[in-house]
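Protein in question quoted in full.
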Amino acid sequence: MAEESMKLRCGVYGEGSVFSLEIERNADVEVLQEKIAGILSTEQHTVPPKLLTLYMAVKKEGERRKWLSGGKNVDDLLQGDVDHTYQKMFSWWKLNKKELFGPGFTPADEEVIHVLVDKFEVKRQRVEHSTSDKFDVKRQRVEYSTSLAELWEHSELQLAVLPAPHQLAELLQKPLPFRLTLRDSVVADRVFSPNGPLITCSDLTLWMDHFLALSVFRRPEATASENSWQLYYDALLSIPISLWHEKGFLVREHRCLADETGTTSLRKRPDYILQYKGLLLMRGEEMSSLESIAKAQAELTTKMRRWNVMLYGDLPYILGYATSGSDLQVVAIERSDGPCRATVILDFNIFEDKAGALKVFYNLAFLLHKMAKLTKRSDACDLVPFVPDENEKRKIVLLDGFIERTIQRTQSGGEMDVERLKSVYETLQGLDESSPVTHLQTVEKLSVKRDGRLVVELSPI
């Protein structure tokens, strides 16, 4: 086996199966989800990768890590309920992240389990079997079946120019031009056009029912953390993302987790970004229900600073969303030469208006696709916004209005090299302060962290 890859053994909750696979050490967890979904899928049923929740099958015992092993105890665990004391593997993390396998991980020779797999389909079948009397699902004659890719024929926007911000509310709340049978018929009646053709689309039904099940059976406590609420918005975002992937419109999403204080407010990065080939289409700020929606909305623009054509191209606006628990605002952030401002398009509660939530996130797929296709990129950059570009000597991140460069003391060749680089950047900072004109990048901020990292913010980009 090549050094760049590793062999992992996975166990599946609910069915008890165990299998092995090989994967690159520096791959995203999302890639591991896709590999596992491919193994679990059959000709009759495709397992969507996004519905797989993965956990590290390891627990700490002092300074040691103990992997799940054995025979009957493994079988008992896999046949039982999901053990949430194991570390969840977030899809945007790298497998070699220290919280997961780490850069120096070597699979042991003994037969141990490395990854636990939770299939939502299994949980949903159990829930529906025990609570079928709670849902009034109308059984109707189905006229024809369709795929996610074929849904674009029903819903793709035929526009030569983007709609004005004041027209977006109507577009996003538009009923879907067909009918599906959902687990909640009352919600379904409000989501779909009553005159549309009755179809089956197993993938779209799965995503919508996923959100509806979460909103009934897994509502969080009033004091739930910001990270806990992300589960519900991830479920809604899975609807447009699955539609884009079937279209071959390969967007990239990234989410920041709340830090130890329970907030991401002090960071320069948005809580959520969605981009296509480096073009940032939507950004989000999420807070717990203990914080106001106004505070979350304000972070959309305070973190954004000013409009940057390298991030947003020639778009007349980008979309944003702000949350406070189950309260959601969808906004348009219009292009401006001055400070950015957010105009509220929609304001509702995703639990009180489930139909509205499903309509908005379905229609977002086609609006954001059209935004990407109609814009021009007069300025471009090899760096992807908010995604670190790393090598052994440094890390560079393209942020709003500046580039953040981080040099590790241990990576740069020693303390003397770090001090030399610090001196260079201090000189640049002094040039900016003494002269109104310079042809060099200027240093907005320079700091040396406790662990020896040198962090510099450079502008213009």
The first strand starts at residue 5 and ends at 12.
